[in-house]
Write a structure and sequence with these properties.
The structure is a homodimer. Chain A has 2 domains: about 300 residues, Aldehyde Dehydrogenase, Chain A, domain 1; about 190 residues, Aldehyde Dehydrogenase, Chain A, domain 2. Chain A is built from 19 helices and 22 strands. The interface between A and B is large, with 70 and 71 residues.
Amino acid sequence: MQSTKSLVAKHQETLEQACEAVLKRGHWSPYPEVPSGKYYGETANADGKLAFEAVLNQRFELSGPETGADTEGTFIGEECSPYGIELGINYQQHDVDSLISSAGAALAGWRNAGAEVRTAVCLEILERLNRRSFEIGYGTMHTTGQGFAMAFQAAGPHAQDRGLEAVAQAWLAMEQVPSGSVWHKPQGKHEPFVMRKRYHVVPRGISLVIACSTFPTWNTYPGLFASLVTGNPVIIKPHPQAVLPVAITVQTAQQVLQEFGFDPNLVMMAVDSAANPITQKLALHCAIRLIDYTGGNSFADWLTGNAHQARLFIEKAGVNSVLIDSVDQVDRVCQNLAFSLCLYSGQMCTTPQAILIPRDGIDTGNGRISFYQLADAITSAIEKLLSDPDRAAMILGMIPSGTTVARLQQAVNLGRVVLESKCLPHPEFSAVSYRTPLILAVEGEERQQWMQERFGPIAFLVATDGLEQSLSLVEEAISSKGAITLSVYSTDEEVLERAEQVAIERGVALSCNLDSGVYVNQSAAFSDYHATGNNPAANTSLTDMAFVADRFAVVQSRRHEV
Amino acid sequence: MQSTKSLVAKHQETLEQACEAVLKRGHWSPYPEVPSGKYYGETANADGKLAFEAVLNQRFELSGPETGADTEGTFIGEECSPYGIELGINYQQHDVDSLISSAGAALAGWRNAGAEVRTAVCLEILERLNRRSFEIGYGTMHTTGQGFAMAFQAAGPHAQDRGLEAVAQAWLAMEQVPSGSVWHKPQGKHEPFVMRKRYHVVPRGISLVIACSTFPTWNTYPGLFASLVTGNPVIIKPHPQAVLPVAITVQTAQQVLQEFGFDPNLVMMAVDSAANPITQKLALHCAIRLIDYTGGNSFADWLTGNAHQARLFIEKAGVNSVLIDSVDQVDRVCQNLAFSLCLYSGQMCTTPQAILIPRDGIDTGNGRISFYQLADAITSAIEKLLSDPDRAAMILGMIPSGTTVARLQQAVNLGRVVLESKCLPHPEFSAVSYRTPLILAVEGEERQQWMQERFGPIAFLVATDGLEQSLSLVEEAISSKGAITLSVYSTDEEVLERAEQVAIERGVALSCNLDSGVYVNQSAAFSDYHATGNNPAANTSLTDMAFVADRFAVVQSRRHEV
């Protein structure tokens, strides 16, 4: 067994840098985001692909509750690659009570290890995950449908960044609690009262992390690592369509835990099927004290209405807006917007859905242009971006959900089509086709069309009476439907300030005049707060102090000093 | 209008000391706990009494929502002094929508003032409250029934300590968020991306603090000040029997807010009557985003099941235990226990209810004594403590609630009475009588008798098979019914360690071998964490990071640096 003491020393500098990054909020990451042999080793890509292929059509073995000696357990799996290749991976199913009981049995040893050791173990897990980024990238690509480059980044280093950020934030919270104190209370002429006190950081209980189908690691690592580092055993319930990235994560965590003498069942995976879901039973178990959930509104509302024994960290649907008032260089703005709308076929919680444009046009650096001239510029930029099929397929990725495809097909009736969605043969995976975004024009008052989440590559150009109506519709969309992002374009500082006031009032992250290689979809760990908890899209932020501080309690003892 | 800049400077040192105290957790307080002219001025007691008497049979004027020009509003009041003097104080009633609308209107100015100014204003409010400690003491005495000395301490300086602790903890959370950053991301051979980001600390919304009848300030100030300092307007809903201490608090806050140019309606009081309560309507309002509640289980459960739009901070019922394994000096232990059981007639959330003693007795520094010898020693210590009527009346105070008196009268059937509750004429207020505690002996298995909260001066000596059963019954009581405190007596270090393990597992604050002037009931701000959130008695702790961090959000904006 390896020494936890040397592990603490090994990760000390990374922890210090991560804490500084959390507090300073500049750019920082220990995990290279470029899928290059330069950072990951010349054979990393090939090795990762091989590792991915090696698990296909196999049982993926993980530690879990003991099954009876004479049963080998039930293995299930229903993942389909959106790229058409056969996956055929099976995972062992466990019943809820066994999972809870195994997690409960693992708790004490992990709690008693203390914050410093737990933090070092979590950093080691993240480092090992980083080494598996290519494998995770391929696993994510073939479950979520993301293009490989994005799958690598978002599910690999960017997710690891978010995990590390949660660990650092939790460390900052835990290290505020001293291990003890001497309470020395003067009593006038009498002897003072002197008490020696001890303070123990203890977990809340067992943590349930419910992963989504589109970002099974990026949206999961914050809750996983925030709960784990504060002492809570974690059960991850993946979406039945996106299990593999979670399974690789759990396997990596279990290996590290076991190497350092801890119960691997501190991190377990609970698989289920679309036909026989177990999430509700898990979520209502009295031992589950923390639940992280990313997904649709109806299950989010069910959790809120029923899982009263648990503290809920929820991210659900929203309607993200772009408000265009005036721009300097139309082309640059449209290129930026085109990429934001196309990336992963609009299946990001940060993707804009509504672009509000004054009906009578906008001022630009080259004079005034009409609503439809701007619409043309946006659609042309999209067409140009997608003109090369290889690039198009890489940026757009695939749509894994039939529901999303059906929504896209029906959406043509929601407004005037300014850009049709096309279904095009995939240049690499010939069995499947990818789809380009649908862009519709609607009036601002047509709220029932654009002011509700239309998940997928569906965006609206919303014609408004002008700045005042644009601002007020944006406010209404955020406060009634929620939003993670707001983007504004204006050459007028006063308009930018007004947008900032809207952002403050409605609790949304604002991006101003993005017109180069930074996109509104992107949220960088250590610098950007993802969601605020102040509008219906989420009740929490990744990752602030509130996201971590309620995952542990402090238990104290006191006695007279003699 | 006074300058907020000088106010920040004025309180800088106190804030720094408070933050250091929160992090070091030794003894510290800027508010003298002794009701002495030496600290508060020679005439402070007389002045405070006069100030209290001056509000009797009057309308207590506070700022609130505008009433129509031609209506003077409805004034109500139903407080009765448990000491029999007439109070006759009336407070203006407001409807829920007006309160919410006024609070909402006050929000922006307070939010925009920033964390530093809000913190200084809160410290000024606390300082002014401290100057009114005698008045608050008399107001608390004549609503809660506490003896004056306790009312002064608990509702005055000790409550102020808890408020200051919340301010300091919230300051530590807010100051972690920088006002801005420069995000400088290298792009290989290309120019780096440079973005300038701004971070705004913004409140969650409007905060509702629901006060209880027994500790209207001590249990209220943490939530009030944690919410206020993080930018949330606060509406306090006092218990109809204990309005005055809340009203004095609100008046003081409003005066300070107004002096420094803020809307006094940032802190408002919502009065109701037992017959026409408004708490449910308030609690369900969509603008209420934070609710602090101290009180009974049924309303706590209603809040949890219904007020889903709000983050709840709840303290409810519990069964606190004392486990006696062995003691050195029986007399000292019994004196300590006697005081704990008598103080404010057992109406503290920290008062022990069950004292678990091995049926076959315990070892002491003077040899073994039987269960009944120990019972006799405890009851004798209580009788001796209460032998002087003046002292007895001061320690016991009065029971303000008829329900509690009725519970006490019926409780004689719950076990073998080892000490009868007596009803004795009050030495100072001749119209009323005070009551002494009822002590009953029961068997450990008689859970239905002792293992549920019997609020009031009712305690059980619980006979167990020995240490093992005592420990297991204590664990069961904490995990099934909740507890804020656990007290253990043992001369064996191993037993103390086992009790500490129980405390860690079940999430309760442990006191070991208290046998002098520190009582298990007492929880000192800056040093003791009050409740843990890890058992049914509370979902939060006063005051840790989790108590404050979720009361604000961070909203960011970003733009390219040009």
